[in-house]
Design goal:
With about 450 residues, this protein is α+β, with helices and mostly antiparallel strands. It contains 20 helices and eleven strands. InterPro entries: Bact_solute-bd_prot1, SBP.
Length: about 450
Amino acid sequence: MLDGNITRRGALGGIGVAGAGLVAGCVGGSDDDELHILTDLSSDEWQEYWENNLIPGYEEEYGLPVEHEYTGLDEVGRQRLATLMQAQDPPGIFHASLPEIGDLVNQGQLADVDDVLEDLEDEWGEPVFKYLLEPIDDQIVNIPHGPYIGCLQYREDLYDELDLEVPETWDDLLENAQAIDEMDNDVRGFGLSAGPEGKPDADFSCWLVNAGGDRFRWNSDDEVELVYEEDDVLAVFELLQELEQYSPDPASLDYGTTIEYWASGRLGQCIMLNAWVCSAAYEAGAEEVALNTKQEVVPHREGVDPDVRGFVTMTGAPVLEGATHTDGAKDFNRYMYGPDRHIEVSLMEPMRFLPPYESILEHEEYRSADVFQIDDGYFLERNEYLLQEIAPQVSDPESPTTPETLGLLSFDIDAQMINRLIVEEEDPEDVYEWGMDELERRFEDVKAAANY
């Protein structure tokens, strides 16, 4: 529920926020004479841009009709994609990060798009986090749309009011959460997400690395193996159980509802992507919240000095093998992300997505956009801080990112562990045992199903 005049539509629409749970557009199978695009770029602004700019321009230039289908956040798009794949009717393009569709990476169902990226690099230079686009022997399988950086979001005005410091450790975070939660208002101290899929899986990666642990590592035979050390995972579980007391109902918090709570001014801290919640609050009319929202690396476990402080993933536009118009899909990516449109594409949701090339962040057309003139460039400052200060602390090119690891992550097992722990209130050691059994079994299945 949102407070005052802040509506769900206001919180999830407009400047940088795609609609949650939206399924719109044509939902039939694709026609052999059309390029089918499945996308979660579905805010009101995006829909107008797709229908009045991108698609008409592409159809006129390339002569190939486009059928575009909108999906919402979290699992809605993946479920629709699975339906199309089962019907042997894959879309030409599906906007996603590779961990979201790791099963397709592992099964060799994404087209090589090296040639497309080479064309784009001639204009923009090398993308940031390029390693996230090439999990298969330097083969590019995703055209970058924009990186997501998982980091701590906090209300600086509340910190100032309560004389709180930016938390360095988990104990600091808990103390801040308690102080905010005990204020005489409706603000909760932390937004803890504990559904069985989606956001909790991404959040878990932040907690685990800041516990000093990891999901995967290279062994002496240069093969990837599971890590998930019991001490690290149980430490994360203990933290989450303590944070739960300062959170709205964790079962209800996903990306969309977390955005709503933040935009309504009812959360003081959470983990979220980029500076997405800033724009949500601003669009909803909560300017004070928006202009007091700051980002920082996720706090670490006491006594641990982790090398990596969060996660980064690259959202993009992979092209699916087996689609009717694979070449047409590649051309659409050249068209959408080429020199005439990529800056305006990056300005469609400028706080949800960071630009995938430093040259775009530095381009005068990008920097002079109206959104970046607000409050003497507050939002531009946030994007610069994320890319220049936080990104180096969360990026790890040496961490195993392979078709097998991506395939395993597509099962959301980490989110299911959190759900069992927080929502089902199962014993932490039992949850860990269940999770490791599931991870080991699925990892063997993934390796057996590999086809790349």
